[in-house]
């Protein structure tokens, strides 16, 4: 049986308390291994190691040397691709076909893409002074310090490295608290760090839960300088409260209840294909996923019929099944949550167009966290199923009559992460995208990611932007140096 230890100061260490928790595979609920749960002592050791590393050889490296190290990390992840793939698929149950195209390549790319972050030009202004000699203002960046990275289970390696990459590129050190559901790839990354010569203390991992556990101990640790988080909005609020002590900076990518807007002038097959992906890929466990679909009335029946045809074709199966494109949810606990929304949808008056239950996967897999991909129609706009993030393979499809109505419906939410607009009319696409209250508006696409672009949410979907140079605002401290001439 596997044992997942903390990675602190370049070494794998157990918890002094001897506390362990189980890590189970959602495919069949089999036991993968036991995970050490960090107490305050391990978190403190990790944070202090990270603090000390800032002053060691890491802190003295040039930007070029750090970039070279990040390239090496990316290359090493790619060399150990299959180990990362196995670990991610075992923890999450997701199809290998998906993880090998998205999770692991992006996990590596996140180090390469952000390697040069700090070399982005800083601002400079010459100013006049009364004596006529003038002064020069030069922006100067320094690392922020120890960054706490609290990451979720849906795209474990991808979302963790999306934070670790730029944090290291900017010269910080990190303490990662991966989700308790998915400890494997963060643990494996420790080996890669050592193989690439990353100095001890630069990258640390502590395992455990949120409240009264590693997550809370880490985010309230006074030597943590900033916290980056991806997960549920309510967890984000708890972390902000912890960060308010000592006025630490936070970057938050939180929940979504993202709309898809399908206009009659769309390319129907593109819209169906894109909406299928946005609602059902990764079993609907993507914060950017579409859970509300608004379709212009004249094509509503046709669109719905095509979606049902495509859902019926989804092939549920084990990660290694080459035909399977749909895995289980991450855990039985999360399955219970999603299933409770399936039940609620019926109570709220939905028509279940397809799915709505737990599939019979056969004796070997029935213990797993399987759930049917589901489409509903007929719910009122104030139904909880239409308003709350479910984070499962489901969507509600509703007709609209005018562009203004579609925009109003789409924006009628506390969230504001992403949207997908389907139309072949470019003027409409731009007009609608500009009015969407979101951080990410996709037109005739979804989850198409250029890592140089800004990433983050509006309203209760997040705080701040990461990605490209936008991450510099968070991962680096900018100081203005004013030189009197
Ligand atoms: N990418 C996203 O936007 C994600 C959204 N979710 C949403 O959140 C719901 C709940 O899933 P969870 O895994 O429970 O998400 P969560 O937001 O509770 O967990 C995310 C991370 O935060 C940590 N955490 C939890 N409470 C904490 C606290 N008080 N202080 C510090 N760290 C804390 C967790 O251990 C985990 O590492 C899902 O059903 C889904 O709706 C979940 C995962 C990812
Ligand atoms: O492409 C990214 O950087 C992130 C994608 C997905 C999420 O953020 C998420 O599901 O949380």
The N- and C-terminal alpha carbons lie at a distance of: 67 Å
Largest sheet: 7 strands, mixed
**What's the pLDDT, averaged over the residues?**
97
**Low-confidence runs of at least 5 consecutive residues:** none
Question: What characteristic shape results from the CA principal axes?
Answer: globular
Share in β-strands: 15-25%
Structural class: alpha/beta
Strand order of the largest sheet: 15-16-17-14-13-19-20
How many β-strand runs?
23
* Ligand kinds: 1,4-dihydronicotinamide adenine dinucleotide, the ligand O=C(O)/C=C/C=C(\O)C(=O)O
Helical fraction: 25-40%
Evaluate the radius of gyration.
23 Å
Number of helices in the DSSP assignment? 17
EC number: 1.2.1.85
Family: Belongs to the aldehyde dehydrogenase family.
Protein name: 2-hydroxymuconic semialdehyde dehydrogenase
GO molecular function: oxidoreductase activity
Structural topology:
Blueprint lengths: L1 E3 L1 E3 L2 E3 L6 E5 L6 E6 L3 H16 L1 H4 L2 H17 L1 H12 L3 H4 L3 H11 L10 E4 L7 E9 L2 E5 L5 H14 L3 E5 L6 H12 L7 E3 L8 H6 L6 E5 L2 H12 L4 E5 L4 E5 L5 H13 L9 E7 H17 L18 H16 L3 E4 L19 E4 L6 H4 L6 E7 L2 H9 L3 E2 L1 E5 L3 H10 L4 E4 L14 E2 L2 E2 L8 H4 E9 L1
Helix pairs in contact: 3-6, 6-7, 11-12
This protein binds 1,4-dihydronicotinamide adenine dinucleotide and ligand LM24SWP5.
